[in-house]
Design goal:
heterotrimer, B: six-stranded mixed β-sheet, 14% strand, C: alpha/beta, Rossmann fold, FAD/NAD(P)-binding domain, five-stranded parallel β-sheet
């Protein structure tokens, strides 16, 4: 096991899973790439069609599997490719975020951001900020599935 | 023995017996006495004779509307006695298309609030054998004598902060309604928890949820849980792990509560059904409180015509995260 | 077990420079289901694609993962490649290891494990990919235009000219719409009838166009390519084949009623054409005004009609037709400003709205084209125009700018001066908005050459004093109060959505904004499309707009329709929602959140305790579904799922991406 994966090590690196909508935020991530911006490799993106597709169960599953932070990124309100997906997403994810915090999770662990396809810089910044915040917070131990971890560490 | 409210029971019986005889309904959902005198369980009355068992006493807490979807599969018209919470549960089911309005006859029972046996027993001290109600007070009878207590102090948890004791939907109201109620402490526990640190809150829920047996009694009792196949039982995908560990406990309870977001009618049946006493209603109330704060006041179950808040939106909605 | 092949692209040094290809290959060999791993310098090249195709054949691959640039770049390319090798295109999955990895991480030690994680996630998803087929629908090569104003006329002409059959449904007895009510048009002052009438005639005579006037759409079912529409053609009580349009009937008709076309300022007969240039020039009998229908006697029109075209027995008819596409061009209404007490509208005959004032200029209008006060028939010498009555008014009216008022007010002030040379116009305004070709110049002309006084400020009160209207206002530039002894006041009232727009929207299946104007699919890039595929909007039913803009939008909508009708079959989206009806509880939440009306309830029969039970579940129309997946989240049991981004696939990706620690 490398130092980066060792939670007690000072070199510990968090895992941030970012769910990005295909039309705006994922494209914003592409633009960050084509503009050769840089953000921490801790962030790993999963592409979803729309933030209206984001089931909070995906977020909880990521935390179970060892993610230290989860970000959902979608188009700015009014710009949704499917017109209403992010409006619905905003309500659903707001309600979920509050509940998640109520259960005792740090607010920084789960975030939602609007990032357009032209905001490569914002994409990079948000990934940078999120990673830094999670790094300061330390590893997620609260919802991690102990068994999953043992599977992974044997790999 | 609880004192029988003979007059009211006779009135209910007269009305529903007629409807059973005339064929207006082929089944009545009511209550009958359970194993103990302080228990009232659902009664499925198909004939006038069955109605001999009907009771209406301070232990009729079970929400009867929950039984409607199944009963409507075998009966063409079902009558149901509804308290405030049963009526709101009916609206929940109606809005979820689980029941058809024209196949159900609702008999409204304004509800004084149901009594909690454990509170009664505790208050009585000795072996509780019966009770008598008098002007908002309860006389508890034990082997060794009588003891009097305020009725409101003996209510079950779900009735303490009930805002709508009167049925909000009915075909026939059987008695005169209860007075207006307020529930200043409805969100008290939620607020107390909100004021804790994340670590403290996590410790609280970890401890509470650690008792969860995954018996799913909360789900069975709940009027918003009307799925044909619950996510917890699905094999593909396997949303919910079977292990008794913090991770899976949180998964189940957060997701279940979330499925009630904007839908929970705050009837408290989940918590009442929980055999290990997990304060489940606080998760539901947290969502009620937040959704009201963020997206405007909405009480699920009051009006089946009003769209649940998570099925709609406004372009200028606020968010619980930074929108910059 | 699937047989997955993984292909990693170097992209020259774009990927290989920051991602250790050797290590990635090594790791990829260990992923579940992976039977073949290869690399190439430029995978998107012909040779690179051939490499994939050959490997599919040689290794009998049934899933392909490429580690390349963004799927937004080359997903289509690689899908095509695997299709050529006999695989369904949706069995391909892309791991974006360039834009999302090698280009944003400089350190090979960090970029490599991330690339491996992305590849692992893509492979995990690919293992669950199903072959998908985009649905196809036959296109009915006929279009429907709802609304016969200038927008509907223009759209119908463009579609007809392109060679397609088009029906125009107009609820009034004649096409023409609002433009027919106008005297002149800004900024060129050409007469409205002179430019509109030829278009009306052209559309009526076009072999590809059928006009269904005095008709309304009753029902719209179906979807893009195949809309089944019921249209009610109201009884005219005049046989259109026999009628010669001679006009004797309405000359002789003894019953009068206020004319809608003249905004109630004049009367028309019970049998009437709304205006002299009406198309078709076939009168209708208004049952509510007709003496015969009301009292059972009269029949003068029938007696007088030379070709005996009057037919009191005529019935409403329902026409059922299938259309491939629909354009909604239902226009706008004027706001009734009665609730603005200070302006006194409705309480004095010389306080008019802009459109009412417009009619006074028209030779066939209520005053025969003489601009006179309706109170005493004298020409007005001082006219006060008030702008933004109900527009840009959050408190009592509409938030938006009605866009046309500044210009038509300038036009009316000019026309007034031409008709009544010693008249003086005053315009109270908030801002003068004249964006448009030739508009600013036109308004300057009004102010400079036609002596129109523009007063920035508001009117606080108008009240009659002897035979004048005292207008009290404030000039907000000087701060002074202004008092004008006016002969007439013209209110530039807000253009608002048609009163029945929400109903029409529901009927047709398109949504509206908070003002009940129909919503375009995208405010910038899809201005004439709606969220319902195959239904387009044009003109002022979408937002207030002037004639050139309306015509442009109508032509744009027509092009969209022509593009659609030019196809024999439509290909839908492959990644659509699907429902497991056996598990669907029928709560219909998915239907409530679907932006495309792609989900609808359906009754199924099920065995239950030996008998059968009918219950409601949902079905997805894949031709309407765009694959946003919003439905999947409100489905608590996960019964409705999204092909291509299924619950199983996303969870597998989450699991795989988290596996690296």
């Amino acid at each position: 096991m490398s130092a980066a994966l060792n939670e007690t090590s000072a070199d510990w690196e968090p895992l941030v899973v970012a769910f990005c909508c295909n039309w705006c935020s994922y494209a914003g991530g592409d633009l960050a790439g084509t503009s050769r911006m840089s953000y921490p490799a801790n962030v790993k993106v999963i592409r979803v069609p729309c933030c209206g597709r984001m089931n909070p169960m995906f977020v909880l599953r990521a935390f179970q599997r060892g993610a230290d932070g989860v970000l959902v990124a979608g188009c700015h309100p009014g710009d949704c490719h499917y017109s209403t997906g992010n409006y619905h997403g905003r309500r659903r994810l707001s309600a979920f975020k509050r509940l998640f915090e109520f259960a005792g999770f740090e607010p920084e662990r789960f975030e939602v951001r609007w990032i357009s396809s032209s905001e490569g810089d914002k994409f990079a910044e948000e990934m940078e900020t999120m990673t830094a915040k999670i790094k300061a917070l330390g590893p997620n131990r609260k919802m991690r599935d102990a068994r999953w971890q043992s599977v992974t560490q044997s790999k | 023995m609880a004192e029988r409210n003979t007059e009211q029971i006779e009135k209910i019986r007269d009305v529903v017996a007629q409807d059973l005889l005339s064929g207006r309904i082929d089944l009545l959902l009511g209550w009958e006495k359970g194993h103990y005198w302080w228990q009232s369980r659902p009664l499925f009355a198909r004939s006038k004779k069955d109605l001999d068992k009907l009771v209406w006493d301070p232990f009729c807490a079970v929400n009867l509307s929950r039984y409607l979807p199944d009963e409507l599969k075998i009966h063409s018209k079902v009558g149901v006695l509804v308290k405030g919470c049963d009526a709101r549960a009916f609206n929940r089911l109606l809005q979820d298309h689980m029941v058809q309005r024209d196949r159900v006859v609702l008999y409204g029972l304004p509800c004084p609030g149901m009594l909690d046996y454990s509170r009664l027993a505790e208050e009585a001290g000795g072996n509780l054998v019966g009770l008598v109600e008098q002007n908002g007070r309860v006389i508890l009878k034990t082997d060794s004598g009588e003891k009097e207590a305020e009725r409101k102090d003996l209510l079950i948890e779900k009735c303490r902060d009930c805002l709508y004791p009167n049925p909000v939907v009915y075909d026939q109201m059987l008695f005169s309604p209860q007075g207006e109620k307020s529930a200043p402490e409805r969100f008290k526990v939620v607020e107390e928890l909100e004021n804790l640190s994340a670590e403290e809150r996590f410790a609280y829920w970890e401890k509470e949820l650690s008792r969860c047996l995954r018996c799913y009694a909360c789900r069975q009792a709940c009027p918003y849980c009307s799925c044909r196949e619950c996510f917890v039982e699905q094999e593909n995908p396997r949303w919910q792990g079977r292990a008794y560990q913090t991770s899976e406990n949180f998964m189940f309870h957060l997701v279940r509560a979330y499925h009630g977001a904007g839908r929970c009618i705050d009837c408290g049946e989940c918590e009442r059904a929980c055999p290990v006493g997990i304060p489940l209603q606080e998760l539901n109330r947290k969502l009620i409180k937040d959704i009201n704060e963020l997206y405007g006041d909405y009480e699920a179950g009051l009006d089946a015509e009003l769209e649940p808040p998570l099925l709609t939106y406004r372009p200028d909605d606020p968010a619980a995260f930074s929108e910059k | 077990m699937p047989r997955i092949g993984i292909f990693i692209c170097h992209c020259g040094s774009n990927i290989a420079g920051t991602v250790d290809i050797e290590k990635s290959i090594e790791a990829a060999r260990g992923f579940p289901g992976v039977v073949h791993v290869d690399e190439y310098r430029y995978l998107c090249s012909e040779l690179g694609q051939d490499l994939i195709k050959k490997a599919i054949e040689e290794h009998n691959l049934d899933r392909v993962v490429v580690g390349t640039c963004s799927p937004r770049m080359h997903e289509v390319t690689f899908r095509k490649a695997v299709t050529e090798a006999g695989l369904n295109p949706y069995l391909l999955e892309v791991a974006n290891i360039r834009e999302h990895c090698s280009w944003v991480h400089k350190d090979i030690e960090k970029a490599t494990p991330k690339a491996i994680a992305l590849l692992r996630a893509a492979a995990a998803k690919a293992a669950l990919n199903d072959p998908l087929v985009a649905p196809s629908v036959e296109v009915e090569k006929r279009a429907l235009v709802i609304g016969g104003g200038i927008a509907g006329i223009q759209a119908a002409l463009d579609i007809a000219e392109a060679g397609y059959i088009v029906d125009v449904v107009e609820r009034e007895p004649s096409i023409g719409g609002r433009m027919a009510q106008l005297e002149k048009t800004f900024p060129t002052l050409d007469c409205s009838a002179c430019i509109l009438t030829p278009k009306m005639v052209e559309v009526a005579q076009h072999p590809n166009v059928s006009l269904l006037t005095y008709s309304e759409v009753e029902e719209v079912k179906g979807f893009v390519g195949q809309f089944d529409v019921k249209i009610k053609q109201k009884a005219r009580y005049v046989d259109p084949v026999k009628c010669t349009g001679c006009g004797i009937c309405y000359e002789k008709c003894p019953a009068k009623t206020p004319s809608e076309f003249e905004m109630g300022l004049a009367k028309r007969k019970a049998i009437y054409v709304p205006f002299p240039q009406a198309v078709p020039n076939i009168p209708v009998i208004d049952r509510d005004a007709c003496l015969y229908f009301r009292k059972g006697r009269c029949q003068i029109c029938a007696q007088e009609c030379p070709p005996q075209a009057i037919d009191y027995e005529q019935q409403d008819q329902i026409i059922e037709r299938r259309y491939g596409a629909i354009i909604v061009a239902t226009g706008f209404d004027q706001m009734n400003p009665s609730h603005y007490g200070e302006y006194g509208y409705g309480q004095h005959p010389d306080i008019l709205t802009g459109l009412e004032f417009e009619r006074l200029f028209n030779a066939s209008g209520p005053t025969g084209g003489k601009v006179v006060r309706l109170s005493d028939g004298k020409p007005p010498k001082k006219v006060v125009f008030i702008q933004c009555v109900g527009s840009r008014d959050k408190a009592r009216g509409m938030n938006y700018c009605s866009k046309i008022c500044c210009m038509y007010t300038a036009k009316q002030a000019i026309l007034l001066k031409e008709k009544v040379p010693d008249a003086k116009s005053y315009v109270f305004y908030i801002d003068v908005r004249t964006a448009g070709k030739g508009y600013e110049e036109f308004q300057r002309r009004a102010a400079e050459e036609y002596d129109v006084a523009y007063l920035r400020g508001q009117v606080g009160k108008i009240f009659p004093e002897s035979d004048h209207l005292m207008v009290h206002g404030v000039d907000s530039l000087s701060g002074k109060t202004i008092e004008i002894k006016a002969d007439m006041v013209v209110l530039a009232v807000a253009s608002v959505a048609r009163a029945d727009a929400p109903e029409v929207g529901r009927l047709v299946g398109i949504n509206s904004d908070s003002y009940n104007f129909f919503n375009e699919a995208h405010p910038k890039l899809k201005p004439v499309e709606t969220h319902t595929a195959g239904i387009f909007i044009a003109g002022a039913c979408q937002a207030p707009k002037d004639i050139p803009e309306t015509v442009a939008q109508a032509s744009a909508a027509a092009v969209k329709v022509v593009g659609l009708l030019s196809k024999d079959m439509l290909q839908g989206e492959a990644c659509t929602a699907e429902v497991n009806q056996a598990e669907c509880s029928g709560c219909l939440y998915c239907e409530a959140v679907c932006p495309y009306s792609a989900i609808s309830p359906v009754e199924i029969e099920e065995r239950y305790h030996g008998g059968t039970l009918k219950r409601t579940v949902v079905e997805v129309n894949p031709t309407l579904c765009h694959g946003c997946g919003s439905c999947t989240v409100v489905c608590r049991s996960g019964t409705i799922n999204l092909k291509g981004f299924s619950n199983e696939q996303i969870l597998a990706e989450v699991d795989a991406i988290c596996l690296q620690r």
